[in-house]
Amino acid sequence: MDSSVLLTYQEGEYAVNTNEPIRYALKADSITISISKTPIQIPIPQNTPQLVDFGIFRPAITVSAIVDNIGGSTIYNSSVSTEYAGMSSISVYNALADASYNYYIPYKNKLEEKLYQWVADDDNVLTLIIGDASFPVWKVKEDGTAGANDNNFATGGGTYQVALQQARFQLDAGREDRWICQMQFVSMSRRDVVPRVF
Fold first, then answer.
1. 3-class DSSP state for residue 138?
2. For residues 21 and 120, what is the distance between their CA atoms, to the nearest angstrom?
3. Which of 26, 78, 88, 158 has the fewest C-beta atoms lying within 10 Å of its C-beta?
4. 140, 192 in Cβ contact below 8 A?
């Protein structure tokens, strides 16, 4: 499976080899990114209105994914965290860290449990990685720093810090082995985007 959405949750301050983030891969079939803005239209009698845009924006992301009813692995592995017991995994290369990480495909009850428990704030960071986020735009890395190579062309993905707003699980007749999960997140701007300074 080539998952297009990776979901990570970092609880507390991250340090190498300690307090590793929880890494889940979602079998997404639909992703929507919307950006709401609030410009002001000032009416002027007998004239065209004035437009005032303060640059306020509110991104939101909706992910629809297929979630299996039970995990994809029935082999117990003592070296794997209990967070991932019974789950199959995929290996994903991260160009920023120059390392590969295992992402685990959650089953419905485990994902539901985590969505209840996770709290997103400055210390507990919930992140969506959509597609290959190595270079969201030409010569700009996932974290917004400049790439050193002119061949660092855009890879098409992006990283977003999010907070869950709503989740919905749907079970259809005839497909009792899987659920359709729809999650709605409020989001910060894409990680590599530098805000405009007036």
1. coil
2. 13
3. 78
4. yes
pLDDT digits (tens, 9 = 90+) for 174-187: 888 899 999 999 99
160 CA to centre of own chain: 6
The two structure tokens encoding residue 183: 């999650």
| 10 Cα distance to chain centroid | 12
Q: How confident is the model at residue 18 (pLDDT cuts 50, 70, 90)?
A: low
- Measured between alpha carbons, how far is 70 from 18 in angstroms, rounded to an integer? 29
pLDDT tens across 128-179, in order? 999 888 888 887 877 777 777 777 788 888 889 999 999 999 999 988 889 9
Report the pLDDT value the prediction gives residue 185, as an integer from 0 to 100.
96
| Strand partners of residue 159 | 129
Query: CA torsion sign, 48 to 50 to 53 to 57?
Result: negative
> Distance between CA 92 and CA 133 in Å, rounded?
11
18: left (phi over 0), alpha (psi -120 to 50) or beta: beta
Instruction: Give the number of other CB atoms < 10 A from CB of residue 145.
Output: 11
